[in-house]
Design a protein that fits this description.
Blueprint (H helix, E strand, L loop, with lengths): L1 H13 L1 H8 L5 H11 L6 E5 L5 H8 L3 E6 L2 H11 L3 E3 L12 E7 L10 H11 E12 L4 E5 L2 E5 L2 H10 L3 E8 L10 E7 L3
Parallel strand pairs: 1-2, 1-4, 2-3, 4-5
Antiparallel strand pairs: 5-9, 6-7, 8-9
């Protein structure tokens, strides 16, 4: 399993600047807003941006007055995000997370959890649940699929249907809040991303 992480991280390390250039202007405000609405606190709130990449969403959460913390497995992204924001950014392998307990009101996992091998996903979800406060919210967005798993070039991915994904989150002890498909302005066959929100029982 470590090989899946190593090769995937190396891909991002080798293409860090190109990835930043390609994704920095992507509008995922709908995803950020969905997380904040589900948290439902006046703020500022503590948010873990899991797989923060170069720091785009850290910048956005910071500008809204919240207290985001980044985490990424790619050293180049960690350095970019730290320089961009001045915020704490943890450098950790997703398969070996070491998170503070009961520390966050929300986890923003945008386009990242699908890189976790299915056999390792329960442990990762458990670590995220333990890092959230009671009532805390996990947002995830992943490419849709029907359970396919394997390599796409140098990146490992798992592509779940809604039924498969919801079963895994419920097994990990999360309570369902909502889900939607993106981009919302496209017909169903062109909505390639599954977004969902989950709460830690209060």
């Amino acid at each position: 399993m470590k090989e899946t992480s190593r090769r995937t991280v190396n891909h991002y390390q080798d293409h860090a600047q190109a990835y930043r250039d390609d994704t920095w202007d992507h509008d995922v405000s709908q995803n950020r807003d969905a997380l904040l609405a589900a948290i439902g606190l006046p703020g500022p709130v503590d948010i873990l941006d899991l797989g923060c990449g170069p720091g785009r969403d850290l910048v956005a959460f910071q500008a809204m007055g919240h207290r985001p913390v980044g985490l990424d497995g790619c050293a180049a992204f960690v350095e970019m995000a730290r320089q961009q924001t001045g915020l704490p950014v943890l450098h950790q392998d997703f398969l070996d997370l070491n998170l503070p307990a009961v520390a966050f009101d929300g986890v923003f996992a945008n386009a990242v959890l699908f890189h976790i091998p299915s056999a390792e996903l329960p442990a990762v979800l458990t670590a995220l649940r333990h890092s959230l406060r009671p009532g805390g919210v996990l947002f995830s967005s992943n490419p849709r699929g029907q359970g396919q798993e394997g390599w796409n070039g140098q990146r490992y991915g798992c592509y779940y249907s809604w039924e498969q994904w919801s079963e895994r989150l419920e097994q990990a002890g999360f309570e369902y809040i909502d889900h939607f498909y993106r981009p919302t302005d496209r017909p169903p066959q062109e909505q390639h991303w599954l977004a969902s929100l989950w709460r830690v029982p209060a």
